[in-house]
Every structure is written in C-alpha cells, then in structure tokens.
Amino acid sequence: MSLLTVLGAGAAVVATLLVAGLIYRDAARVGVDLGSPTLWAGFVVITAGAALITSLLVPDAPLPGVLVLAALGPLLYLLERDDSMHGDDPADPMRLPSETSAADDPDDPGDSAERDATDQTEPIDRDG
C-alpha cells in the first residue's frame, strides 16, 4: 500500500464520520419517521465502509459503482427525511411543493384565473 492510498483512506474515514455525525444531528432534530438517528448514522458508516473496503480490496472495481455505494446511505436518508417532513399530504398538480399556502388564498385573482384557463382545455379532434 502506498502513502497516497493510506492518506486517501484516512480522508475517507474522516469524511464518513463527519457526514454520519451531521446525519445523526439532523435526524434527531427533524424526527425521522423510519428508524432512529443512531440507525441512520450507522447505515451511512456501513455503506461508506463497504465502498472503502471494496475500493481497497478490489483495485479494478469500477469507480462509479464504488461512488454509488458510498452515496447510498446519505441519499436514502435524504429521501426518508423528505418523506418525514412532507408527510402523506396528497399531491397538488397545480402547485410546486416549495410554494407556500399563500397561493391558496381565494383573494388572489391571478392564481384562480390561471387555473381556470388551464382547466378549460379542449381535446384535439384527430379524426376531423
């Protein structure tokens, strides 16, 4: 093993512990529905550790596969966090999730006029 490999592995371990700590803190603050903060931090450490072990033991392992394995833990946590924060609210096809509820104000004539215009679409007659 070269010095560069040891330094790279050390940097990966430090980065993994930092990300796991941030995920633990965020999961405790948000209150993720599935699992506990310790479980999510451990999952991040396991996926990053599997990526590190794969890259060290299998030198010909494809880099995209190793990166996907390393990113799997944080990405799954972010998906679960988003689901916990937005809950099971029904989707509104007329509004983006980032918009506030002020768009639902009935006193706003521009929004309702735009909705009325989009609701009055006529089907295309392809036979005529």
Describe the protein's architecture and organization.
This protein has 128 residues and is an all-alpha fold. The chain has a domain of 85 residues. The protein is 66% helix and 0% strand. α1 runs antiparallel to α2, α1 runs parallel beside α3 and α2 runs antiparallel to α3. The relative contact order is 0.10. The model has no long low-confidence stretch (mean pLDDT 80).
Q: What characteristics describe this protein?
A:
0% strand; flat; mainly alpha; 128 residues; 4 helices
Topology:
Layout: H1 3-30, H2 37-57, H3 63-86, H4 109-119
Helix pairs in contact: 1-2, 1-3, 2-3
Q: Could you report the average pLDDT, rounded to the nearest whole number?
A: 80
Number of strands: 0
H and E order: HHHH
**Distance linking N and C termini:** 74 Å
Q: What characterizes the major β-sheet?
A: none
**Helix-strand category:** mainly alpha
| Portion in helices | 55-70%
Question: Counting H and I runs of at least 4 residues, what is the number of helices?
Answer: 4
Strand residue content: under 5%
Categorize the overall geometry. flat
Radius of gyration: 23 Å
Low-confidence segments, given as residue ranges, are none
Write a concise synopsis of the structure shown.
The chain has 128 residues and is an all-alpha fold. 66% of the residues lie in helices and 0% in strands.
